[in-house]
Design goal:
alpha+beta, 4-stranded antiparallel β-sheet, 36% helix
């Protein structure tokens, strides 16, 4: 078996645009997340896509952004679902990580409203390692992302504590020196 193969997205998936959904039908909680052009925009009682699929933002400033849903969801017309034709050859979470790394926003066209077309995406070439390596790499990327989030939160907490200490120190010094605040 070949270790890495180069394929186009057209060879491994079907890309489908989502369906319209009125804003009045999208709620803050519900059975299924609703994905728009930039990720989850709310929740809806029904799904129009199965889980384990990659979601690509189709329109707007952030078009080309990538999300992955392991559970059923509603996809709006501002996004595209990527549905694998052979889930035994391609590990969907790995493909989501790979596509995130490619910065698909650079494929966007349009002056008033940026968009990424299905034809552009179908012609995109990617290199895929064997399935086992895809799973291994996907787990590694997940761990990296989890650690990035934890580090970001720690830095935010440290920054807030530092601001608090600095503010307290300034006030304390001012009061010791008889400065009126």
């Amino acid at each position: 078996m070949q270790y890495v193969q180069t394929v186009t997205l057209k060879n491994i998936c079907k890309l489908k645009t989502g369906d319209n959904l009125n804003k009045s039908e999208v709620f803050n909680s519900g059975a299924h997340p609703v994905y728009g052009g930039n990720g989850i925009i709310g929740y809806y009682g029904q799904s129009n896509r199965d889980g384990d699929s990659v979601i690509i933002g189709k329109v707007g400033m952030y078009c080309g952004n990538i999300h992955f849903s392991s559970k059923p969801y509603w996809l709006t017309s501002n996004a595209i679902s990527l549905e694998l034709t052979d889930s035994n050859a391609v590990f969907a979470p790995y493909l989501a990580h790979l596509l995130k790394s490619l910065d698909l926003n650079k494929l966007s066209t349009g002056t008033v409203q940026k968009f990424v077309s299905i034809n552009q995406l179908y012609s995109l070439e990617i290199s895929l390692p064997n399935y086992q390596k895809q799973v291994e790499l996907s787990n590694w990327f997940d761990t990296l992302e989890e650690n990035r989030v934890k580090i970001k939160q720690l830095l935010s907490n440290f920054s807030n504590e530092l601001d608090s200490v600095t503010t307290s120190s300034i006030i304390e010094k001012a009061l010791k020196n008889g400065v009126t605040l």
